[in-house]
Design goal:
Helix content: 25-40%
Order of helices and strands: EHEEEHEHEHEHEEHHHH
Structural class: alpha/beta
Number of strands: 9
Strand order of the largest sheet: 2-1-6-5-7
Radius of gyration: 23 Å
Amino acid sequence: MRVDVISIFPEYFAPLDVSLIGKARERGILDVRLHQLRDHAHDVHRTVDDTPYGGGPGMVMKPGPWGEAIDAVLASGPAEPPRMIVPTPSGVPFTQRLAMEYAAEPWLLFTPARYEGIDSRVMAEYGARMRVDEVSVGDYVLAGGEVAVLVMIEAVGRLLPGVLGNVNSAVDDSFAPGAMENLLEGPVYTKPPEWRGHEVPEILLSGHHGKIARWRRDQALRRTARNRPELLAALDPESLDKHDRRALAEPDLPETGPAGSTGPAALTG
């Protein structure tokens, strides 16, 4: 996959050289190209913003530099244009399903803005030529869109074939489509079986795969009910069996009990 990013702070993307994404770049799975927006501003100060028409606080990024920068990226690639992604608090929510959709694209172009955003004519201009998505990573405002692009590249990049060591890791993620869709992932544990008085839930040590799967779904249901009740409300009631309903009806118990506990807290994870 090719990913282009146009920004006034291309150095912001140094984290893409490390961890899984850095390895994916080294192996040629992910081709990330960074572009300095100010290279397309031609005044002495390389200005990329101006005051908004109609008044109001803040500055708006000018269409001229953005148009030249995007045109230069388009001219450097294949005839089929990329999918352009504009991070903005007013965009559609970025979800795991959308990350999977982006992971299937051969070419993505990210245009992170600063100030009050990009002149809307830029999205109108390129929306007539290619798919342009305005996307939000959450209901809050950032100083700039670069951090949102980092979030999206990592979420998309880890889904590319060959990036994750275990192909099933992405399948089991929170929000991944499938049997657990719209449920948060439950708690996870590793060795040792007891740490600082906290024991790993006994069911996970049992070797009984059916019971472990049932336990994990119960924990996912309870955690979703506790932390993201709106996701649970969006589930089709017909998708919940009697075991699901029983798990949701039980008290929301602590995720782990102390060593030697014989109560349900030690088994509800």
